[in-house]
Design goal:
The protein folds into three domains: about 280 residues, FAD/NAD(P)-binding domain, CATH 3.50.50; about 100 residues, Guanine Nucleotide Dissociation Inhibitor, domain 1 (Orthogonal Bundle), CATH 1.10.405; about 120 residues, no CATH class. Helix content is about 25%, strand content about 20%. The protein has twelve helices and 20 strands. Keywords: FAD, Flavoprotein, Glycoprotein, Lyase, Oxidoreductase, Signal. GO terms for molecular function: lyase activity; prenylcysteine oxidase activity. This is Farnesylcysteine lyase.
Length: about 550
């Protein structure tokens, strides 16, 4: 069945969940109390150590991928590294995470990034390497997809799994527009995919690479403009493509740039991992052999004797006690948006500070009910089949004037029946739903879509409450940026040995693209460390002098 975001394409790059514990790292550590002063950094004796310490801040798609590829690239290049990952949450995966319906670990539900597709080579190859099983589509024979404009369904189609868009079934309504869109998507995404290999990989400047690949001409236009310039009719763009940009990014075609619009139509081979996509990133971290510190918040970064001093506040998962920790690193990778990190960075440390950019506030609501969606809410007559998955679009004259209030008349982005589920208390079969909306849901809205009264106090809903809703779970994400048209993007390197991954999000925000940026940064780190090691080796070899003497550094 449709699964909300799962319906379409490469989903952003939204984090994951792991049962991992907190693993402390080597440094200064004191339990915080009113009588305990902040620890001072104690320097180790200045003895040359060829092993370079790399800190990665964030264990989402980009942080996990950085650790994974850094270990591989460093080993191949003979660069000894020690990798430490700091994650403020109790799980890995960032915005790719699951929750347990009814608290049952056998009923995991994707809360963030839900699917990846055939062209997502990093995710696809990693999942196979780690032996992760792709989940089968849960399509039922009577499933129906509908695209609703707030008054009527402008398009309906029998569900064909995550690949709901079947060109042959819609040619009769939209002419050649679907074929034009497919060709345009393949051409555009094909240019982007050149970033995976030399000569375009690796890249310090994403802006330069976008220019080299002629993708600036795509990101500089809105999706609406890009489609019109390529003779794709307005009706198909509004009915079908805009439904995709709304369910994937909460944005309309008059706002989202052309490249992200094309990404929304790259749906071939959509899949998800059984038990949660976060397992891909958990597998990457384990394969990297990194020290992973969960429940560990980086509070500040400063320079000390040519190295980076990272200060963290950590909470012991068993005792709940907080501690302050400090440690020195040669290289830092900030693998999360700086504006949400809360990290205090020493003045002058960065050559450039990333701009604050607006992110979409997305409300994801999961609930279970014995009820099906009510036909009267959707203005359907008696006997009409109500779609099991509802995407939304806008009527041509309903484009909101405020770009940060894109929902319009429908009032939500999507409602999807994910699957049937058993209430563990009553043993009744329930319907499991997911709703994407720009605001929290209230009992009035839920009563309307289910056709029965719902208690105003939604937090009182339990499996045994006897209400029409037997399980309820709301969550709010800063899910992805508003993908405004733009021609420049944040660089990968913010200073010497200081890298940043979130510049990719304004270009393309998906799990795969963030993993690509992690792989890119990993190669940049190894290249820079290689330069440092070569610079150290040369004077040592000059001092040793004779041909029959060999520097210990040659073994590096």
């Amino acid at each position: 069945m449709y699964t909300g975001w799962n319906l379409l394409l490469i989903v952003a790059v939204l984090g994951g969940q792991s049962a991992g514990a907190f693993w402390p790292f080597h440094g200064i550590s004191n339990v915080v109390s009113a009588d305990t002063p902040e620890p001072e950094l104690e320097l180790e004796p200045e003895v040359y150590d060829p092993t370079k310490r790399v800190a990665i801040i964030g264990a989402g798609a980009s942080g996990s991928s950085t650790a994974y590829y850094l270990q591989q690239f460093a080993e191949k290049s003979g660069v000894p590294v020690n990798i430490t990952v700091f994650e403020k949450s109790h799980y890995v995966g960032g915005r790719s995470t699951t929750v347990n319906a009814y608290g049952n670990p056998l009923e995991r539900v994707e809360l963030g990034a839900s699917i990846f597709v055939e062209v997502n080579d990093i995710l696809k190859n990693a999942s196979r390497k780690f032996g992760l099983r792709a989940k089968d589509s849960e399509t039922e024979s009577d499933d129906l997809l509908g695209i609703w404009d707030g008054e009527k369904f402008v398009f309906t189609q029998k569900d064909s799994g995550w690949k709901w868009w079947d060109v042959t079934k819609i040619l009769w309504k939209y002419g050649t527009a679907p074929i034009r869109t497919q060709r345009l998507m393949q051409s555009t995404v094909g240019r982007f995919r050149q970033l995976y290999a030399p000569p375009f990989f690796p890249f310090k400047s994403l802006s330069d690479r976008a220019l080299d690949l002629d993708l600036i001409s795509v990101t500089s236009l809105t999706g609406e403009q890009y489609l019109a310039n390529n003779s794709i009719g307005a009706s198909y763009a509004t009915d079908i493509i805009q439904a995709s940009t709304r369910v994937n990014y909460g944005q309309n075609l008059n706002l989202i740039h052309g490249l992200e619009t094309m990404v929304c139509m790259a749906i071939e081979g959509a899949m998800q991992i059984d038990g949660g996509n976060w397992q891909i990133f958990d597998g990457m971290l384990k394969a990297s052999k990194a020290t992973v510190n969960l429940n560990s918040t980086v509070s500040s970064i400063s320079k000390h004797k040519g190295k980076y001093n990272i200060k963290t506040t950590s909470q012991n998962a068993t005792t709940g006690e907080a501690s302050i920790n400090q440690a020195l690193f040669d290289t830092i990778v900030l693998a999360s948006p700086l504006q949400y990190s809360g990290i205090e960075i020493e003045d002058g440390l960065l050559k450039h500070t990333p701009d604050n950019i607006p992110y979409v506030t997305l409300h994801v609501t999961l609930f279970a009910s014995s009820r099906t969606l009510d036909r009267t809410f959707f203005n359907l007559g008696p006997g009409s089949q109500v779609p099991t998955s509802v995407l939304t679009t806008l009527q041509p004259d309903q484009i909101p004037s405020d770009p940060e209030k894109p929902c319009g008349k429908p009032g939500f982005f999507s409602i999807s029946l994910l699957r049937k589920i058993i209430n563990p208390e009553t043993l009744e079969v329930q319907n499991l739903y997911k709703v994407f909306s720009p605001h929290s849901l209230d009992s009035e809205f839920l009563s309307a879509i289910l056709g029965v009264p719902i208690p105003k106090n939604l937090s009182s809903i339990t499996a045994t409450s006897g209400d029409a809703i037997s399980w309820y779970y709301p969550h709010v994400w800063h899910s992805y940026p508003y993908e405004y048209p733009r021609v420049t993007f944040e660089d990968s390197a913010l200073a010497n040995n200081f890298y940043y991954t979130s510049g990719m999000e304004s270009f393309i925000s998906t799990m795969e693209t963030m993993a690509l940026m992690g792989m890119n940064v990993a190669q940049l780190v190894v290249d820079e460390l290689n330069e440092v090691l070569e610079a150290v080796k040369e004077p040592v070899q000059q001092v040793l002098g004779s041909h029959d003497k060999q520097s210990p550094l040659d073994e590096l």
